[in-house]
Amino acid sequence: MQIKYQSVVGLSVHFLFYEIKKDKGFGKMVKNQCDARPVKAYIMSDLLKKFDNDTRNDVVQIAVAIAGFYLGVFCLEYVDTEYSLWLTWFLMPVIVTFLLPAVIIVLIYISAIIFHLYRLYRMNVVDGVQPDWKHAARLAVCALWDAHGWLWHGYDIKGLENIPDGPFLVIYYHGALPIDMYYFIARMLLFKRRHIHTVADRFMFKIPGWATLLEGLCVIPGTVQTCASVLRNGNPLAISPGGVYEAQFGDHYYRLNWRNRIGFAKVAQEAKVPIIPMFTQNVREAFRTVGWLRGVWLKIYATFRMPLAPVYGGFPVKLITHLGKPIPYDPELTPEQLQRKVAHAIEELVDEHQRIPGSILQALLERVHEIPKRRKDSPLTNGKCQNGTLKTEDSEKSASGKSKVS
């Protein structure tokens, strides 16, 4: 047997477990600590024989090997022989929670592959059956995402009666991963034959392999002019004012992180379309971002505009998308006033349907039993908005008497 000198730990494992495999009786010698002494003698004797037969070993190699031997003996005497296996099982839940988000990435790339295949073989596969290969690919991709949402999250939509027949603008709360929007787009296309165009951050268009997918799903970077043009052409559009910032730095208190963005209000005013407020219950319980090193991730995002905050989760919690009543076009409202009105509508949806703070365990239980929500104050319970401004009184809302700027 040729001895490899890669690490002290590797040597100790090599000398101990090689002998266990070679001699089945060796494993029986270490049932208790009283048998450790003959085991040490056995290993040392065999170790010396190996070095005696191998003239290539120098002093450094011998010293490292002996150090590895004593480390192995220490583990044999004072550490459970199944420690590594136990440690693996102990850390498995943590490992899984950071690996499950990769499933979403895999599904996204599968969706991209579907679009590439339809584009590559559109002459042979699509022509004569469906003249628009992008639409055919969209149906296949949406079937994939709708199946995933139904199986993994029991996804459902409430408030579909609020969807108008013409173009409209959906404004939604952005979770750590916008999986609710994926499911919503899929469900609307498959069962309502309404394709929702969406606005995404520019960094997504730089991800390898995603360009064809984003083009096929009608995802755009989104300026006021392009968004208004989409709506004027009769297409529904979805925008999250919080965007990637809200995804990274939001939490299970479901506060809006819009940072005074009013671009979506200008789009709605220019296109003269109604706004549908949207919120998905438990979206922050499905995926979350880690809270530690928040300042570091914030500086990285502010400098490079890249979302690098680690995401964990993928829990099979119940997801229900709630669509609020349409906010009609009102030429008398300024973009700032319309922004406050929409923010208030979304916060009302959160207050009505979401437990604050969110609980992963309760969200899991809601898969089998609907837990009634206890009435609480609005998510903005500290009297201030996320951007630090005080909540203002809104005379137009006589029912609630308050309006919150997010």
TrEMBL record:
Residues 157-278 form the Phospholipid/glycerol acyltransferase domain. Residues 372-406 are annotated as: Disordered. GO terms for cellular component: membrane. It comes from the Eukaryota. The chain crosses the membrane at residues 59-79, 85-115, 167-185. GO terms for molecular function: acyltransferase activity. Keywords: Membrane, Transmembrane, Transmembrane helix. The keyword Transmembrane applies. Residues 379-390 have a biased composition (Polar residues). The keyword Nucleus does not apply. SUPFAM superfamilies: Glycerol-3-phosphate (1)-acyltransferase. This is Transmembrane protein 68 isoform X1. It comes from Spodoptera frugiperda (Fall armyworm).
